[in-house]
Amino acid sequence: METAGHRLEEDAVIEIGSIDVDLATGTIGNPLQTLCDPAGVAINPHARKVHQISDAMLEGAPPFAEAVRPFASAGLYAAQRASFDRSRLRLTGRWLCTYKLALRAFPQVRAHGLQSLVKYVPLDLSEVRPMLEGLHPHRALYDAVCTAVLLRTIAATLMPRCHDVDDFLERAERVSNEPALLARLRFGRHKGVALAEVPDAYLEWLLREPGMEADAVFTARHHLRLRSVRGARQMPAAAV
Length: 240
Hints:
Layout: E1 2-3, E2 13-21, E3 28-35, H1 45-51, H2 55-58, H3 64-67, E4 76-79, H4 82-89, E5 94-97, H5 98-105, H6 114-120, H7 129-132, H8 140-158, H9 165-177, H10 200-208, H11 214-234
Parallel strand pairs: 4-5
Antiparallel strand pairs: 1-2, 2-3
Helix pairs in contact: 5-8, 6-8, 10-11
């Protein structure tokens, strides 16, 4: 999905793209894409520079309410940073966030933006290359196809820890609704450091600091709890 690039209450969807992925078979297909009339909302210059969708391209495009209908019956959706797409598309169903899932599946990757994951996991796009012809990153269908390959790769990585596809989807949905479990801190004295290497005292400070972002608090609490459990397991038994 691409938008005019404003805050939620002022934004307008200008392009929707989707692709189906069957996690049981790995099959990817049925590409859909449409432009949308922004209903008078001006496109932010920065957003236009990224997706390169011009006003001329939007002439004659259907209104959002009409354009979104073909996408409204899936029941299960996946998107990179799904909260952004979910808030604007307003499609009822279950949502998976491939950004949060990629943090779990590939914590060692240097960055977790979609195109960074394509490059650094790396993702094999050879099978879907025909669907990408004439497109570029940050066009709705291009990003949807890359997201489908990413989700399939995440599933292949995490599925061995699950009972079956349904169990994976249940766990993936739970992770998608939680704050992100960061692989590295994004600020402060330990910016860029893997969370496993950040001292306990700094993680405890994060929990005490008012106004701290939810992802950092969630991640600090997770690692402190994990270290506590590991410490208890390694503690020698008391003599009787």
